[in-house]
Amino acid sequence: MTSPHAARWAWLLIALAVVASDRITKMMVEAWLPPYRSVPVVPGLVDLTFVQNPGGVFGVFRSLDASWRAGLFTVVPIAAILLILTYAWRVPAEHRLTLASLALILGGAVGNLVDRFRLGYVVDFIDVHWRGWHWPAFNVADSTICIGVGLLLVESLFSPQRSETPAGPSGPPSAEAARRDLR
Length: 183
Hints:
Elements: H1 4-32, E1 38-42, E2 46-53, H2 66-90, H3 96-119, E3 122-130, E4 133-134, H4 140-158, H5 175-182
Antiparallel strand pairs: 1-2, 2-3, 3-4
Helix pairs in contact: 1-3, 2-3, 3-4
């Protein structure tokens, strides 16, 4: 039997796998594709296009002044990483979906932060489009962040409550207990 802390380290391996796959794909794009040149993968739907994204996920805030952008996209991800690590350490080890979701988000945040420190922008390269409409280019890190957030949302909407109810650990009061309280 593994200890809860040993099981928790397994989720950090997921985060490291995300960082590694993100770094490898970005290095390949940087080595093989000139900026803003597209290579069709699924013609009319998906291209590889090397985009230098100075903004946030999907290019949010890319038009913000460079000095503000640099501070925002350094401080916020570092704070988020620290919060994720703190929260993940407090989540019980048996809450595997929560921990896996946090690991995906953590790996993606670290992957994009590496680009910010290294280049001052994030390398995006997955260009999804249809009939002239383009989704903002994204990368492996962005994808894992979105998947992790999506899994957390699904879990929060469809999992039974894990915490105690306001009425206490045994659930809502019985009809008899409610009548007793009214007297």
